Amino acid sequence: MLKTKVKTFQELSTQELYDLLQLRSEVFVVEQDCVYQDVDGKDHKALHILGYKDDVLVAYTRVFQPGDYFEEASIGRVVVKESQRQHKFGYDIMNASIEAIKQKYKISKIRISAQTYLKSFYNNLGFNEVGEEYLEDGIPHINMLKI
Is residue 79 one of the residues assigned to a domain? Predict the structure, then answer.
């Protein structure tokens, strides 16, 4: 079972910040072999959704209110530690993120920039493709919307 916490940037402890940056780097930079600027100056505007198994951070997203990233509310930096993916924590962390947007911002319309190979995962969560596939940091992505 995944235990989740929702925190603003200011509420994150130094350890939580270190852990989430380490997890993002582990997956997006090392595992996906993608050199890009993960620390993009936007974390301070985001709500951070942290997912723990046995007090270890294994899943994470950041969410934005409308206008801070896209016109709609958005979820990004969706990540699950590779050794924990068989537990379907991606669904748990995404559902916690969708719920956080509903609770905090009182809206349900959400846009994401999804890695194309995860399209069916996001379809299962109620997101639908919008527009054409594009490259972001050398990886195929597609915009998706949940209404």
Answer: yes
Convert the pLDDT of each residue in 21-52 to its tens digit. Answer: 999 999 877 777 777 777 788 999 999 999 99
Q: Is residue 124 part of a domain?
A: no
Residue 27 domain-assigned (yes or no): yes
Q: How many angstroms separate the CA atoms of 44 and 8, rounded?
A: 8
Pair 130, 145: CB distance under 8 Å: yes
Structural domain boundaries enclosing 38: 3-107
Longest Cα separation, the chain: 40
The end-to-end CA distance of the chain, in Å, is 27
Is pTM beyond 0.85 here? yes
Q: What is the number of domains present in the chain? A: 1
Measured between alpha carbons, how far is 89 from 67 in angstroms, rounded to an integer? 28
Question: Nearest CA to 80 among 118, 108, 43, 44?
Answer: 118
